[in-house]
Write a structure and sequence with these properties.
By secondary structure, the protein is mostly helical. The chain has 17 helices and no strands. The chain has one domain. The two termini are 34 Å apart.
Length: 455
Amino acid sequence: MNWALKHKDQYRRNIKLAGPVMIGSLGHIMVGVADSLMVGKMLGPIPLAAVSLANSIFHIPLVFAVGIAFGLTPLIANADGEGNISKISRLWKNGLVVNLTFGFVMMALLFMAGPLFNHLKQEPEVVEFALPYFFIIITGIIPMMLFLNLKQFAEGLSDTAVATRVSLVANFINVALNYMLIKGLWVFPELGLLGAGYATVASRWLMFLGLWGYIKNKEKFKKYWIARKEERYKWSSMKDILNIGLPSGLQYIFEVGAFAISAVMAGSIGAFPQAAHQIAISLASISYMAASGLSAAASIRVGNQLGQKDYPQLKLAATTLFKMVLVFMTVTGIVFLLTRNILPTFFTDEPEVIAIAAQLLVITTFFQLSDGAQVLAQGALRGLSDVKTPTLITFVAYWVLALPSAYIFAFVFNWGIVGIWIGLAAGLTFSGALLTKRFYKKANELLSLQKNNNE
């Protein structure tokens, strides 16, 4: 408590930065959660399983593209620490090229992935629902990449509030469109699961247009717009973004890919376990995305202090954020445990699906701390531009440990969907421990180097 009071200014700065990002991240993930919740309640467990299958395939290349976009934030935060307007504008302009290039590539790969659905040993009825929905949501990648270029630019300059407001408005619109398009209301046709897909894509475009309008007209950004016009497209700037973005994208692929394969594993067990998996993933993603707000704050603060060469403040900022994420994830874990039989009922009325999802939420409770630690450490290390070794750690955690363990527990020990989630929890724990250790090792090296230079 005394330590917390002594460093209350740090917590105040963390909350100011992370609070809007957490809310914005929640708004972003709630677009998907709203789809799952409304599809499950309005259409039933088979369409809900179809959402799980489609999103599992969709999110693998999507998060890679998102990870690429995240490479922009620490670089802009670092340049902001240096007070270099020209560098900020150049990175922002070249980041747009990077985002759009990877966005179009990921779209093309996803469209070609359609035939894959018929070879995943899923229930035919689930595949029949999943494919049309899948092809619709793919078209939302480009507005998402445009939005992220603006969002990462603003967040690198420590303006984290506006993306939150835009995301929340878009989420409310998505819910309204879901309601109107799934069942049909007023002049809108009844489109079922396809309606949820159209609503999601529309909300992505609204997020981009809303944020563009704000940044284009806000006085404090005008100097960057002016400088941006004078800057040229340069491979060196794109390379700087990719040096952080590519490994960051791979980290997301390794993690999300593992959860995507786990959804396919769940589908091979049956539609009800797959629907329960989607419910538990949707709920766990809420706490994860909130924690990712603290991770974004860590990337901004660490990158900024690195630019100022203030290494004691760098370590202190990260330490306070680690403490905040652990407290937050402890609370969410307790909530999941106490409400495990209630939360699934918001998604479905099927008793068997509710019972399975409740079991998975017990496991979710126990990996909350690991999940919070690993996502915070990723952000802090990204702020240090240390991404290669963390990428290797993430690969080992999910593809060497989590997935093989999940398969063995589920199909060799016959623990079913519970075994899959125990394997995933093992990977999260490994990742959280090693990434946290890695950050403090790098931070202490900077402090020692600065101390030796001063002497």
